[in-house]
Amino acid sequence: MNWLKQAVGKEWDITPAGGLTGDAYIASKDDRRLFLKRNSSPFLAVLSAEGIVPKLVFTKRMENGDVVTAQEWLDGRELKAEEMQHHRVTDLLRKIHGSSELLHMLMRLGKKPVTPGRRFADITAQLEANGLLNAFTEVQNTMDHLDYLLPATHNQQQGVCHCDLNHNNIIITTKGQLYLVDWDNAMIADPAMDFGFILKWYVPAEEWDRWLNQYGAAKDNYLFERMYWYLMIDALDYLSWHHERNEPDKVQNRIADLHNLNQYVQNAILR
Question: A Pfam family name for this chain (predicted)?
Answer without folding.
Answer: APH
